[in-house]
Structure formats: structure tokens, C-alpha cells
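Hi P.,

Sorry for the delay on this. The queue was packed all week, but I finally got your sequence through. Input first:
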Amino acid sequence: MTLNDSRNTIPYPTPAHTPPHDSNIPLTVLVSSRAVIFDENNSLTISPATLTLSPQTGTIISILPTILPPSSFPPNTKYIDHSPHLLLPGLVDAHVHLNEPGRTEWEGFNTGTRAAASGGVTTVIDMPLNAIPPTTTVNGLKEKIKAAQGQCWVDVGFYGGIIPGNADELLPLVDAGVRGFKGFLIESGVDEFPAVSSSDVALAMTALSSTPTTLMFHAEMIPPITASVGDDVQVSLPPLEPSGPLTSYSTFLSSRPPAFETYAIEEILSLSHLAPELQLHIVHLSAVEAIPLLRAARERGVKITAETCFHYLALASEEVEDGDTRHKCCPPIRSSSNRDGLWSELSSPNSVLQTIVSDHSPCTPELKLLPEGLSKKSGCCGGSHGGGVVKGVNGEVMSREEADEREKGDFFASWGGISSVGLGLPILWTEATSRQKSSITILDVVRLCAVNTSKQVGLSHKKGALRPGMDADVCVFDDQGEFVVGREEMLFRNKVSPYQGRKMRGVVKETWVRGQKVFERDGANGGFVGKAGLPIGKLLLEKRKC
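Then the structure:
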């Protein structure tokens, strides 16, 4: 199955009858006047619905396109009417850096998945880098599995990584259950995950050519002739002749032009003939100039798709204040006109942008080098990680005094990554409903953030849609509610995000994972109301079949 499929290949089943009224089977029934389900033509639609869930099996027993009364069910049924809020499938965030083990001061399975659950995300796929060891070997995967046990509030899958010299590890990682692979065509910024050359990519494509998986790329490369930066993606030296102050976002943006992305994508496409049946994928595409290249390749029959991110759709370079390194990521946030182009492409019936993800890539506040004013505004005071010392990206240790001497607000020296896991649904909904020319509906949000993301990682048989027999993952969404992003809404470990202080439209009221309510807005235990307030997430390690 590819993301290019316009229809889900799972047939729409005839709704099952509800159990007899005297049944002893414990049931949970969720109803609403509005739910995003599939109609008889297998198309997403908004309809009244009755969802019957089995807490025992964790699956959806039946879906009926009407609201049945409580009297239709056994007396021991848990029956909840969520009208007029929307019942959505739990979102699948297919691009998250949880950083554990090794860099748990940046993020961890517990904090990252709590944040995900608070935003209606019921499945996250963890990226192979920023943890130590990275997921580039089976042993590295085993270390990550060990670290994740008993910590996850939602279900978690894992990607493997491609780095120089690990081609022989790829098929064993497939057998061990990774959902896909990612490589960098430019240095990642962490020593243990180096960039791959064209020959490394060729080896990976050949090794995976007949395997049901997805080979993904951080598509940035420095063109042969450039006035740009050294080849590091997250932390780099400035250009020899910078276009302006290093604390100016425009200086940073001009150092990473769209040619970085188009050059890398051209290199990937030049190798695609080595594995014509392998699904290729471009992560976090930001430059609209890359879209025609991908469209032309798809028309030639190349199996390639791309994702974009919430920050490329919600933020714009003109709005970034001097020194506000909370906005730094690679590829960079580009202009408002580029943002408009991404939204236009999402509205295209044959869009190359098949998924939207968070690319949650956090770090400690110290590594963001925020100026004092912004640091205080964010509530990020020094000394929260290690007392009198500060730990650098690659483990180097500096004193607090040495750290304080670094230039604050330097877009080149600060870590590149946007923190947003759990905020994606309101970010996207806020922007979609505020844009005059946007044709993106809640059906598109479900398609881009649940249906297609589950396909991308080979989980569409159990995740990403409300269908009988699939996992009972449900997001209860108040599409009219509003809130302002404060520290209490940012449940990831480090409260450093460009969304702080922004007014959002759309509030996740509840999140259900496999028939168990794990999050309830304003509920006890900070809203985490699962079994005895404990995590119930599973690790998704079944071998991928499609």
C-alpha cells in the first residue's frame, strides 16, 4: 500500500449488531452528533455516530451512523454523549524525537507521550536520532525498547536510521519491527548520527528494495556553489560573509535557501531507479520550490511522497523577532508567501504533501541561547539542568559562566528544533479556520494527520481511522473552543516553544487509547485519568507487512 492510494483498501464492513441487552460483556459507548467516519462509499464524512468500544480487546466493535439511546445497551455499559463535540480518530504523529535514552534532559518517553495524549495523538513514531544510542542497529533498538517500557501514555512505534556503514543492519531492523528508516543528506548536528553519501543511499535502497517499508530523507544538501553555511544542520558556523547580524532571522534564512532542499531532492530522485518499488519520503518539506520536482517524479511513476509540519503552515519568517531562537529549525521557517504556497498545495487533489507532522525536536533551554528578555518571558531560567554546569549537544560540559558568555539569540549557534507535540491539532485548526482562501476541512485534517500518517508507517490496518475491528483510538475535539498557549498547556519536558502566548482555536477534551480514556481536560491527576493514573501505551513492534 502506498500513500498515493486514493481509497483505503480495507473494505467498509457492515456495522455489527450491538450485544444483547443482557450481555455481560463490558462496553463503552461514545456517541455524538458529529463524528468523522467512513460512509458506504468509503469516503470520510461527518455524521452522527454511535461508537461501541471493547475495553477488553481495545478495539471498535461497531459504528452506526446514528445516535442510539442508552436503553439500546446492557445496563453495565459506560455511555457518554459528547455532542456537539467531534469524535475523531486518534491522530498518528509520524515524526517525533523523544530522545531517550541518552538525552532525557531534552525529552523522554513519559513527558513526550503525555504531551501527545493531551493533544489527541494516540500514536507517535519515534525518530532514530537524538537518543544515545541511535536506532541504527538492532542493539540500539533494544536499548530504546528497554527505556520505553512502562513509560508511554500512547502507543509508540520506532524508525530505524541509515548512517554510513550500517546497510547490513537494515533488514534485521525491519524484522525487529521498525516502521521505516530515516537518513540525513547533511550533517545532523549529533555525532552519533552522521550524514549519508550518495553511495550510502544507494546501498540502503538496494538493501530495502523489496521490503515493505518507507525510506525517508532529511533533504538538505549544500549546492556545489554557495555563499552559505558549513554543513551542519542543527548547530553551525555562520557564513564567511553573513548577510547581516547573527541574531537576525533573515541572516539565518538567507544562509539556507530553497536550493538546499531542491538539490537534495534531485539527488534522491537520481537514485530512485535502484529501488522502483520502494516507498520514498521527504520529511519536513518547507520550500515550495521542491514541489514541482516531486510532482514530476510522481508522474513518472516514482514512489515518493512528502510531509510538511505544523510550524511551516503556521509561522512565517517575517514574524520572527531578532534573537527569538525558539523559531529555529532546519529546513527553516520561510516567508508568508511560501507558507501560502504550502497551503495551496495541500488543497490540490493530487498533492505531493500527503501528511502533516510535528517534527517535535526539543532541547534544554540553555541550548536555545534565548536572550534574557525572551528567556524570562518563557519562564526558562538558567540552572534547571545540572546546577552549575551546562551540557552541550554532544556531551561537552561547560560551566554556567562559560555558557552565559555565549552570544544569546545567535540563530547559528543555537539548537534547531521546534517543540510542539500535543499542540498540532489546534495549531492546524487555528490556521485552517483563519485563512480566507483555505479549503482545508476537518476531514482533511483527519486524512493528513491520521489516515495517511498511519499508512506511511504501515499501521493502517489498526490505526488512524474509526472503523470496526480497528484500535479504539478516539479524540474528542471541541472545534469551537479557544485557549492561549501557556506553560501549563506545554506538557513536553522543556517549555520552550514559539507557540507560547498564541491564541488557539480547538480544544482536545478527551483522548482514548485502545478503548481506555487516558486524558480528560481538567480531569484529576492533571487530566491523566487512565488505569490508576498509570501509562497504558504499547510499543508497536509487529513486523511491517505493507
